[in-house]
Design a protein that fits this description.
InterPro entries: 6-blade_b-propeller_TolB-like (IPR011042). The protein has four helices and 26 strands. The protein is mainly β. It has one domain: Neuraminidase, CATH 2.120.10.30. The protein is globular and about 50 Å long.
Length: 337
Amino acid sequence: MTKRRQFFQLASAAALSALPWSRGRTAPTQEDGMIIGHGDFRFKVDKNWGNLDPRKQGLQHCHEMVLDSRGRLVCSVVSDKFSLIAYNKDGKVLNTFQHRLLEPHGLSTSGEGRAQTFWLTDAAGGRVVNLDLDGRIIRELQVPPDQIPAGEAFKPTETAVARNGDIYVADGYGTNKIFQFDGKGQLKNVFGGKRYFNCCHGIAIDGRNGREELLITSRADQEFQRWTTDGKYLSTRKLPGLQICRPVVYGDFTLFAVLVTKSWWSYDGMLAVLDRNFDVVSLPGGSAPTNQQHFEDVVYDNQTFMNPHDVCPDADGNFYVPQWYSGKTYPIRLRRV
């Protein structure tokens, strides 16, 4: 069991902000406009991009971000005021949405144009809801109780939607199973589990090989795996030293937020950019990769990030980064240089 999951067994999201370690961690400082990254993936850091008035739009922390068909950057957050916050690319707030979820976590999109929808998981409340572009709940997926072993709970962390409409739900903080639903919301397959995953935190559809496959994170094992869309295991890419969150498919590249490298008890983390062969070519916020077999010697720069939880690219190559338990900070932008 990961320390991250232990935290939520000990305290609610609201109570976590009062824990001594949360108050006592020292925030890293950084000169404005510092350049980070390596090779073709170098960025100028803008920590003020998403800043809001905490008295009016305060939050505990952020989880994930997507770029929707309206051009909005939509972020899932833990806050008593809203579940989602939508920015434009200049960092101006366009909308906020409240759904009274305990822990809004995984956020993904399905479809295109006006028909596009969001899928949002509630990791603490055990819910998976489908939203329209105006933030209204359309429907909710239901996992049959007999699929959850006695003494365990459904704590979904991520979703991904295939071209045929099938919806994959990663139960990353619960059973470590992948629940596959058809487009009508009926459960059709269950695979994975603790034999394969140790915190299946993220899942994504990868169609770059001419057929759709699944990329599934096993964060506590510091790896991700390839699976077929009907639940057959294919391969594993180990990244020792990098506690990766969800995979983000970005052209020929795969992106990860690295939540932690060395310690859960101080600010840490970086991003990882992998090429078509899943070689790490850039570690923004950390030292340059020198060995493709292990990353335990990678050094956090102690300046850029405070536990990054996701990375969202735009069409111009900029990255937007929401962060977990980062002193109630808002998402930051990395401008490509």
